[in-house]
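Can anyone check this?
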Amino acid sequence: MEGTKGQPDRDRITLGYGRGELYLDLSHVPDARVFMPERTENTEPVGDLLKKSLANPVGSPALGDLAAGKSSVTIAIPDKTRPLIARDILAPLIQVLKEAGVPPQGIKVFISSGIHARHTEEEMRALVGDGIFEAFEVHQNDGHRLEDFVNLGATSRGTPVEVNRVVADSDLVILIGGLAFHYFAGFTGGRKMIIPGAASVNMVRNNHRLTLTENGEMNPGCRSGALSGNPVHEDMMEAVGRLENDIYLVNVIRDGWGAVASVISGGLVESHAAGTGIVRDLFECHLDSPCDIAVASAGGDPLDVNMIQSHKSLEHAAASVRDGGAVIGLLACGDGIGSDTFLPWFEYRDSGEVTRNLYANYQLNGHTALSFMRKRERINLIIVSELAREVIEGLGAVYAENLDEALHKAEAIAGDGARIYVFPRAWGLLPVVRQ
Protein backbone atom coordinates (compact mmCIF):
# COMPACT_ATOMS: atom_id res chain seq x y z
CA MET A 1 0.00 0.00 0.00
CA GLU A 2 1.36 3.38 -0.97
CA GLY A 3 0.65 6.45 1.12
CA THR A 4 -0.55 8.59 -1.77
CA LYS A 5 -3.34 6.20 -2.69
CA GLY A 6 -6.72 7.67 -1.84
CA GLN A 7 -5.15 10.75 -0.26
CA PRO A 8 -7.85 13.19 0.91
CA ASP A 9 -7.88 16.97 0.76
CA ARG A 10 -5.10 18.08 3.11
CA ASP A 11 -6.94 21.16 4.34
CA ARG A 12 -9.64 19.07 6.05
CA ILE A 13 -8.52 15.63 7.20
CA THR A 14 -11.15 13.88 9.31
CA LEU A 15 -9.81 11.95 12.31
CA GLY A 16 -11.91 9.77 14.58
CA TYR A 17 -11.76 10.65 18.27
CA GLY A 18 -13.91 8.73 20.74
CA ARG A 19 -17.44 8.95 19.41
CA GLY A 20 -16.74 12.17 17.57
CA GLU A 21 -14.29 13.59 15.05
CA LEU A 22 -11.42 16.05 14.91
CA TYR A 23 -10.27 17.92 11.81
CA LEU A 24 -6.70 18.60 10.76
CA ASP A 25 -5.54 21.30 8.34
CA LEU A 26 -2.14 20.64 6.74
CA SER A 27 -2.51 23.02 3.81
CA HIS A 28 0.47 24.98 5.19
CA VAL A 29 2.76 21.93 5.22
CA PRO A 30 4.61 21.31 1.93
CA ASP A 31 5.82 17.82 2.89
CA ALA A 32 2.79 16.02 4.28
CA ARG A 33 1.27 12.68 3.31
CA VAL A 34 -1.90 11.03 4.48
CA PHE A 35 -1.91 7.25 4.65
CA MET A 36 -5.45 6.03 4.22
CA PRO A 37 -6.31 2.33 4.37
CA GLU A 38 -7.76 0.83 1.25
CA ARG A 39 -11.50 0.38 1.18
CA THR A 40 -12.74 -3.13 0.54
CA GLU A 41 -14.38 -3.80 -2.78
CA ASN A 42 -16.76 -6.20 -1.11
CA THR A 43 -20.43 -5.25 -1.24
CA GLU A 44 -21.88 -8.51 0.07
CA PRO A 45 -23.63 -8.66 3.45
CA VAL A 46 -21.72 -10.36 6.25
CA GLY A 47 -24.25 -13.20 6.30
CA ASP A 48 -23.52 -14.02 2.65
CA LEU A 49 -19.76 -13.92 3.25
CA LEU A 50 -20.21 -16.25 6.21
CA LYS A 51 -22.33 -18.66 4.18
CA LYS A 52 -19.65 -18.85 1.49
CA SER A 53 -16.89 -19.39 4.02
CA LEU A 54 -18.82 -22.17 5.75
CA ALA A 55 -19.29 -23.85 2.38
CA ASN A 56 -15.53 -23.67 1.71
CA PRO A 57 -13.74 -24.24 5.02
CA VAL A 58 -9.96 -24.03 5.09
CA GLY A 59 -8.24 -27.00 6.71
CA SER A 60 -11.37 -28.39 8.37
CA PRO A 61 -14.45 -30.50 7.70
CA ALA A 62 -17.68 -28.57 7.24
CA LEU A 63 -19.06 -27.07 10.44
CA GLY A 64 -22.23 -29.14 10.16
CA ASP A 65 -20.16 -32.33 9.97
CA LEU A 66 -18.10 -31.29 13.00
CA ALA A 67 -21.24 -30.48 14.96
CA ALA A 68 -23.07 -33.70 14.12
CA GLY A 69 -23.46 -35.85 17.23
CA LYS A 70 -22.27 -33.09 19.57
CA SER A 71 -24.36 -32.36 22.65
CA SER A 72 -22.58 -29.14 23.70
CA VAL A 73 -21.18 -26.29 21.63
CA THR A 74 -19.74 -23.00 22.87
CA ILE A 75 -19.45 -20.01 20.54
CA ALA A 76 -16.76 -17.60 21.74
CA ILE A 77 -17.06 -13.96 20.67
CA PRO A 78 -14.96 -10.78 21.18
CA ASP A 79 -15.80 -8.46 24.06
CA LYS A 80 -16.89 -4.83 24.12
CA THR A 81 -13.36 -3.48 23.53
CA ARG A 82 -13.41 -4.83 19.97
CA PRO A 83 -15.49 -3.84 16.93
CA LEU A 84 -18.93 -5.44 17.05
CA ILE A 85 -18.94 -8.54 14.83
CA ALA A 86 -20.93 -11.27 16.58
CA ARG A 87 -24.49 -10.06 16.08
CA ASP A 88 -24.47 -10.68 12.32
CA ILE A 89 -22.84 -14.09 12.67
CA LEU A 90 -24.36 -15.80 15.70
CA ALA A 91 -27.81 -16.53 14.28
CA PRO A 92 -26.56 -18.21 11.05
CA LEU A 93 -24.05 -20.28 13.02
CA ILE A 94 -26.68 -21.38 15.51
CA GLN A 95 -28.94 -22.40 12.62
CA VAL A 96 -26.16 -24.64 11.24
CA LEU A 97 -25.75 -26.21 14.68
CA LYS A 98 -29.48 -26.88 15.04
CA GLU A 99 -29.62 -28.46 11.58
CA ALA A 100 -26.71 -30.69 12.60
CA GLY A 101 -28.76 -31.94 15.57
CA VAL A 102 -27.16 -29.98 18.41
CA PRO A 103 -29.87 -29.44 21.05
CA PRO A 104 -30.60 -25.72 21.67
CA GLN A 105 -29.99 -26.15 25.40
CA GLY A 106 -26.49 -27.36 24.58
CA ILE A 107 -25.51 -24.15 22.75
CA LYS A 108 -23.79 -21.43 24.77
CA VAL A 109 -22.31 -18.06 23.92
CA PHE A 110 -19.08 -17.08 25.64
CA ILE A 111 -17.63 -13.57 25.73
CA SER A 112 -13.85 -13.95 25.52
CA SER A 113 -13.10 -10.99 27.75
CA GLY A 114 -9.89 -12.36 29.24
CA ILE A 115 -8.85 -10.13 32.12
CA HIS A 116 -10.85 -7.12 30.90
CA ALA A 117 -13.58 -5.54 32.99
CA ARG A 118 -16.79 -7.54 33.37
CA HIS A 119 -19.75 -6.69 31.15
CA THR A 120 -23.09 -5.49 32.42
CA GLU A 121 -26.25 -7.25 31.24
CA GLU A 122 -26.92 -4.33 28.91
CA GLU A 123 -23.46 -4.63 27.38
CA MET A 124 -23.86 -8.37 26.86
CA ARG A 125 -27.21 -7.84 25.16
CA ALA A 126 -25.58 -5.29 22.86
CA LEU A 127 -22.90 -7.79 21.87
CA VAL A 128 -25.19 -10.71 21.03
CA GLY A 129 -28.61 -9.14 20.38
CA ASP A 130 -31.76 -9.41 22.48
CA GLY A 131 -33.01 -12.56 20.75
CA ILE A 132 -29.81 -14.54 21.33
CA PHE A 133 -29.50 -13.23 24.87
CA GLU A 134 -32.99 -14.41 25.77
CA ALA A 135 -32.76 -17.79 24.03
CA PHE A 136 -29.30 -19.02 25.04
CA GLU A 137 -26.92 -18.98 27.99
CA VAL A 138 -24.44 -16.12 27.68
CA HIS A 139 -21.28 -16.35 29.78
CA GLN A 140 -18.22 -14.12 30.11
CA ASN A 141 -14.68 -14.74 31.21
CA ASP A 142 -13.40 -13.38 34.51
CA GLY A 143 -9.73 -14.23 34.74
CA HIS A 144 -9.66 -13.63 38.49
CA ARG A 145 -12.42 -16.17 39.36
CA LEU A 146 -10.01 -19.08 39.56
CA GLU A 147 -12.81 -21.54 40.41
CA ASP A 148 -14.10 -21.05 36.83
CA PHE A 149 -11.08 -22.72 35.25
CA VAL A 150 -9.98 -26.24 34.36
CA ASN A 151 -6.28 -27.01 34.78
CA LEU A 152 -4.84 -28.82 31.75
CA GLY A 153 -1.21 -28.90 32.85
CA ALA A 154 1.48 -26.52 31.64
CA THR A 155 3.24 -25.63 28.40
CA SER A 156 6.93 -26.32 27.79
CA ARG A 157 7.57 -22.67 28.67
CA GLY A 158 5.89 -23.09 32.05
CA THR A 159 2.56 -21.41 31.33
CA PRO A 160 -0.25 -23.02 33.36
CA VAL A 161 -3.03 -24.04 30.98
CA GLU A 162 -6.10 -22.86 32.90
CA VAL A 163 -9.10 -22.54 30.57
CA ASN A 164 -12.62 -21.48 31.47
CA ARG A 165 -14.68 -24.64 31.92
CA VAL A 166 -17.48 -23.28 29.70
CA VAL A 167 -14.99 -23.58 26.84
CA ALA A 168 -12.96 -26.56 28.05
CA ASP A 169 -15.99 -28.79 28.73
CA SER A 170 -17.74 -28.24 25.39
CA ASP A 171 -17.65 -30.88 22.68
CA LEU A 172 -17.09 -28.21 20.04
CA VAL A 173 -15.82 -24.64 20.35
CA ILE A 174 -16.46 -22.09 17.63
CA LEU A 175 -14.21 -19.03 17.82
CA ILE A 176 -15.43 -15.83 16.15
CA GLY A 177 -12.42 -13.55 15.98
CA GLY A 178 -11.52 -10.30 14.30
CA LEU A 179 -8.21 -10.69 12.49
CA ALA A 180 -5.73 -7.80 12.39
CA PHE A 181 -2.17 -6.98 13.41
CA HIS A 182 -1.26 -7.24 17.11
CA TYR A 183 1.77 -5.46 18.46
CA PHE A 184 3.27 -8.39 20.40
CA ALA A 185 1.24 -11.50 19.48
CA GLY A 186 1.75 -10.85 15.77
CA PHE A 187 -1.94 -11.03 14.88
CA THR A 188 -5.23 -10.94 16.73
CA GLY A 189 -7.94 -13.59 16.52
CA GLY A 190 -7.70 -17.36 16.43
CA ARG A 191 -5.88 -18.72 19.49
CA LYS A 192 -6.21 -15.33 21.24
CA MET A 193 -9.92 -16.03 21.71
CA ILE A 194 -8.83 -18.72 24.19
CA ILE A 195 -5.66 -17.19 25.57
CA PRO A 196 -6.16 -14.56 26.87
CA GLY A 197 -9.88 -14.63 26.01
CA ALA A 198 -10.89 -17.70 28.03
CA ALA A 199 -7.85 -17.87 30.29
CA SER A 200 -7.11 -17.33 33.96
CA VAL A 201 -5.05 -14.37 35.09
CA ASN A 202 -2.21 -16.80 35.91
CA MET A 203 -2.21 -18.16 32.38
CA VAL A 204 -2.31 -14.73 30.79
CA ARG A 205 0.42 -13.38 33.05
CA ASN A 206 2.83 -16.22 32.25
CA ASN A 207 2.14 -16.12 28.53
CA HIS A 208 2.50 -12.35 28.23
CA ARG A 209 5.71 -12.48 30.29
CA LEU A 210 7.29 -14.08 27.23
CA THR A 211 7.41 -10.61 25.67
CA LEU A 212 10.61 -10.26 27.71
CA THR A 213 13.90 -12.08 27.29
CA GLU A 214 15.87 -13.50 30.22
CA ASN A 215 17.81 -10.24 30.20
CA GLY A 216 14.60 -8.30 30.71
CA GLU A 217 14.63 -6.84 27.20
CA MET A 218 11.66 -6.74 24.83
CA ASN A 219 11.75 -9.98 22.84
CA PRO A 220 12.47 -9.11 19.19
CA GLY A 221 10.16 -11.89 18.03
CA CYS A 222 7.16 -10.24 19.68
CA ARG A 223 6.05 -7.66 17.15
CA SER A 224 3.26 -6.87 14.72
CA GLY A 225 2.95 -9.36 11.89
CA ALA A 226 5.42 -11.89 13.37
CA LEU A 227 4.33 -15.46 14.15
CA SER A 228 7.39 -17.60 13.38
CA GLY A 229 9.84 -17.22 16.26
CA ASN A 230 7.28 -15.36 18.35
CA PRO A 231 7.31 -17.05 21.80
CA VAL A 232 3.99 -15.52 22.85
CA HIS A 233 2.21 -16.93 19.78
CA GLU A 234 3.98 -20.29 19.99
CA ASP A 235 3.09 -20.63 23.67
CA MET A 236 -0.55 -19.77 22.90
CA MET A 237 -0.69 -22.45 20.24
CA GLU A 238 0.83 -25.06 22.54
CA ALA A 239 -1.67 -24.16 25.27
CA VAL A 240 -4.66 -24.36 22.94
CA GLY A 241 -3.38 -27.74 21.80
CA ARG A 242 -4.08 -29.09 25.29
CA LEU A 243 -7.83 -28.78 24.72
CA GLU A 244 -9.47 -32.06 23.76
CA ASN A 245 -12.53 -30.63 22.02
CA ASP A 246 -12.93 -29.76 18.35
CA ILE A 247 -12.24 -26.14 17.42
CA TYR A 248 -13.66 -24.30 14.43
CA LEU A 249 -12.57 -20.76 13.63
CA VAL A 250 -14.47 -17.94 11.95
CA ASN A 251 -12.07 -15.12 10.97
CA VAL A 252 -13.68 -11.76 10.29
CA ILE A 253 -11.36 -9.34 8.51
CA ARG A 254 -12.34 -5.69 8.37
CA ASP A 255 -10.72 -3.08 6.22
CA GLY A 256 -9.23 0.03 7.81
CA TRP A 257 -12.64 1.70 7.69
CA GLY A 258 -14.41 -0.97 9.68
CA ALA A 259 -16.20 -2.61 6.75
CA VAL A 260 -16.01 -6.39 6.56
CA ALA A 261 -13.62 -7.30 3.75
CA SER A 262 -13.58 -11.06 4.12
CA VAL A 263 -14.75 -14.00 6.24
CA ILE A 264 -12.60 -17.12 6.32
CA SER A 265 -13.67 -20.21 8.26
CA GLY A 266 -12.10 -23.53 9.10
CA GLY A 267 -9.25 -25.01 11.10
CA LEU A 268 -7.57 -23.03 13.84
CA VAL A 269 -4.16 -22.97 12.17
CA GLU A 270 -5.06 -23.14 8.49
CA SER A 271 -7.84 -20.57 8.31
CA HIS A 272 -5.97 -18.13 10.53
CA ALA A 273 -2.88 -18.41 8.31
CA ALA A 274 -4.98 -17.76 5.21
CA GLY A 275 -6.45 -14.68 6.85
CA THR A 276 -3.09 -13.20 7.83
CA GLY A 277 -2.14 -12.92 4.16
CA ILE A 278 -5.24 -10.81 3.52
CA VAL A 279 -4.44 -8.62 6.52
CA ARG A 280 -0.92 -7.95 5.21
CA ASP A 281 -2.28 -6.96 1.81
CA LEU A 282 -4.83 -4.62 3.38
CA PHE A 283 -2.79 -3.00 6.12
CA GLU A 284 0.95 -3.03 5.48
CA CYS A 285 2.01 0.47 4.48
CA HIS A 286 5.44 0.68 2.81
CA LEU A 287 7.37 3.92 3.26
CA ASP A 288 10.51 5.10 1.48
CA SER A 289 11.70 7.09 4.51
CA PRO A 290 10.63 7.95 8.05
CA CYS A 291 8.88 11.18 8.96
CA ASP A 292 9.53 13.90 11.53
CA ILE A 293 5.95 14.00 12.85
CA ALA A 294 3.21 11.38 12.74
CA VAL A 295 -0.40 12.18 13.57
CA ALA A 296 -2.24 9.06 14.74
CA SER A 297 -5.92 8.39 15.30
CA ALA A 298 -7.13 4.91 16.19
CA GLY A 299 -10.29 5.68 14.25
CA GLY A 300 -12.48 6.40 17.26
CA ASP A 301 -14.48 4.29 19.67
CA PRO A 302 -14.00 1.44 20.64
CA LEU A 303 -10.43 1.44 19.34
CA ASP A 304 -9.46 4.37 21.57
CA VAL A 305 -11.79 3.49 24.46
CA ASN A 306 -8.88 3.37 26.92
CA MET A 307 -5.12 3.79 26.95
CA ILE A 308 -4.40 0.06 26.79
CA GLN A 309 -6.36 -0.21 23.53
CA SER A 310 -5.15 3.14 22.18
CA HIS A 311 -1.54 2.16 22.66
CA LYS A 312 -1.74 -0.22 19.70
CA SER A 313 -2.34 2.68 17.34
CA LEU A 314 0.43 4.68 18.97
CA GLU A 315 2.79 1.73 18.47
CA HIS A 316 2.03 1.50 14.75
CA ALA A 317 2.40 5.22 14.09
CA ALA A 318 5.69 5.36 16.01
CA ALA A 319 7.21 2.89 13.55
CA SER A 320 7.10 5.62 10.89
CA VAL A 321 8.97 8.28 12.91
CA ARG A 322 12.70 9.03 13.03
CA ASP A 323 14.54 9.09 16.34
CA GLY A 324 13.87 12.40 18.07
CA GLY A 325 10.71 13.04 16.07
CA ALA A 326 7.18 13.27 17.44
CA VAL A 327 3.91 11.36 17.41
CA ILE A 328 0.65 13.18 18.03
CA GLY A 329 -1.76 10.64 19.49
CA LEU A 330 -5.48 11.40 19.35
CA LEU A 331 -6.51 9.04 22.13
CA ALA A 332 -9.89 9.86 23.68
CA CYS A 333 -9.72 7.13 26.37
CA GLY A 334 -13.27 7.79 27.52
CA ASP A 335 -13.12 4.74 29.82
CA GLY A 336 -9.80 5.77 31.36
CA ILE A 337 -6.55 3.83 31.41
CA GLY A 338 -8.08 0.37 31.06
CA SER A 339 -6.09 -1.37 33.79
CA ASP A 340 -4.90 -0.71 37.33
CA THR A 341 -1.62 -2.47 36.47
CA PHE A 342 -0.45 0.15 33.95
CA LEU A 343 0.22 3.45 35.74
CA PRO A 344 2.36 2.14 38.65
CA TRP A 345 5.18 1.27 36.24
CA PHE A 346 5.69 4.94 35.46
CA GLU A 347 6.91 5.49 38.99
CA TYR A 348 10.20 3.95 37.85
CA ARG A 349 12.89 6.23 36.48
CA ASP A 350 13.37 4.73 33.02
CA SER A 351 12.79 1.68 30.85
CA GLY A 352 15.90 -0.05 32.17
CA GLU A 353 14.52 0.04 35.69
CA VAL A 354 11.16 -1.18 34.42
CA THR A 355 12.65 -4.12 32.54
CA ARG A 356 14.60 -5.31 35.57
CA ASN A 357 11.60 -5.11 37.87
CA LEU A 358 9.15 -6.46 35.32
CA TYR A 359 11.21 -9.56 34.67
CA ALA A 360 11.57 -10.18 38.39
CA ASN A 361 7.88 -9.53 39.15
CA TYR A 362 5.86 -9.68 35.96
CA GLN A 363 2.43 -8.05 35.99
CA LEU A 364 -0.14 -7.79 33.27
CA ASN A 365 0.09 -4.68 31.12
CA GLY A 366 3.60 -4.10 32.40
CA HIS A 367 4.88 -4.88 28.91
CA THR A 368 2.47 -2.27 27.51
CA ALA A 369 3.86 0.28 29.95
CA LEU A 370 7.41 -0.72 28.97
CA SER A 371 6.61 -0.36 25.29
CA PHE A 372 5.07 3.07 25.91
CA MET A 373 8.12 4.14 27.91
CA ARG A 374 10.56 3.02 25.23
CA LYS A 375 8.70 5.02 22.62
CA ARG A 376 8.76 8.00 24.97
CA GLU A 377 12.53 7.68 25.28
CA ARG A 378 13.08 7.44 21.51
CA ILE A 379 10.58 10.03 20.30
CA ASN A 380 8.32 12.75 21.68
CA LEU A 381 4.75 11.68 22.48
CA ILE A 382 2.14 14.43 22.38
CA ILE A 383 -1.30 13.30 23.50
CA VAL A 384 -4.75 14.81 23.00
CA SER A 385 -7.08 12.97 25.35
CA GLU A 386 -10.00 13.08 27.74
CA LEU A 387 -7.57 11.86 30.38
CA ALA A 388 -6.44 14.54 32.81
CA ARG A 389 -3.28 16.53 32.11
CA GLU A 390 -1.58 15.09 35.18
CA VAL A 391 -2.20 11.54 33.96
CA ILE A 392 -0.69 12.21 30.53
CA GLU A 393 2.28 14.03 32.01
CA GLY A 394 2.70 11.22 34.52
CA LEU A 395 3.29 8.93 31.54
CA GLY A 396 6.12 11.19 30.46
CA ALA A 397 4.15 12.45 27.46
CA VAL A 398 3.25 16.02 26.49
CA TYR A 399 -0.36 17.01 27.09
CA ALA A 400 -2.20 19.11 24.50
CA GLU A 401 -5.65 20.62 24.94
CA ASN A 402 -6.52 20.17 21.27
CA LEU A 403 -5.13 19.15 17.91
CA ASP A 404 -3.97 22.66 16.95
CA GLU A 405 -1.92 22.94 20.13
CA ALA A 406 -0.49 19.47 19.60
CA LEU A 407 0.60 20.29 16.05
CA HIS A 408 2.19 23.56 17.18
CA LYS A 409 4.21 21.73 19.84
CA ALA A 410 5.27 19.01 17.42
CA GLU A 411 6.43 21.53 14.81
CA ALA A 412 8.42 23.36 17.47
CA ILE A 413 10.22 20.08 18.21
CA ALA A 414 10.79 19.00 14.60
CA GLY A 415 11.76 22.41 13.23
CA ASP A 416 11.08 24.03 9.88
CA GLY A 417 10.29 21.86 6.87
CA ALA A 418 9.07 18.93 8.94
CA ARG A 419 7.81 15.90 7.05
CA ILE A 420 4.40 14.92 8.44
CA TYR A 421 2.61 11.59 8.00
CA VAL A 422 -1.02 11.25 9.03
CA PHE A 423 -2.64 7.92 9.93
CA PRO A 424 -6.41 8.35 10.33
CA ARG A 425 -6.88 4.63 11.06
CA ALA A 426 -3.58 3.78 12.76
CA TRP A 427 -4.97 0.75 14.64
CA GLY A 428 -4.81 -1.39 11.51
CA LEU A 429 -2.17 0.30 9.38
CA LEU A 430 1.35 -1.03 9.91
CA PRO A 431 4.07 1.27 8.50
CA VAL A 432 7.12 -0.55 7.15
CA VAL A 433 10.06 1.72 6.31
CA ARG A 434 12.16 0.34 3.46
CA GLN A 435 15.79 -0.13 4.41
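Reply from J.R.: I decoded it. Residues 1-6 have pLDDT under 50 and may be disordered.
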